[in-house]
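User: structure tokens for this one?
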Amino acid sequence: MPAKAKVLILGSISSALAERSRSLNFEHVSSVEMIRQEISRRTPAGQAAERALEKGLPIPDQVIFGVMRRWFWARKPDAGFVLTDFPATLLQAKVFDEWFESRGMSLSACAVGDAADSVVVDHYRTQGYDVFVADQLLAV
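Assistant:
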């Protein structure tokens, strides 16, 4: 798979698989890690995420969208990546699809990691993607 491939892994992957993606010269991007960084830097997004987590609530979509939007629009359209942990919901998948469409981009591959939402997996299948198991996709 070329290093400029855009790979979406629905759910999470093991640290060993994340290391494998980096060894293949892919930028590994995790929304969970990006939110953790926001929390540690005490940014407004990080503080909002931390408040939600302290209350046992999910992190609000607007916080996740803000963090992921900054990453997505700051990158070069032809740069490859392996994205995990986002999109995690059908709403997030539809918004992410709109971002891709607005830049004339498409995914190279879609795979299922751990704890993927079956509704999101089904969404990408109906979009015409063959959805692989993440271990198989990165085991080249």
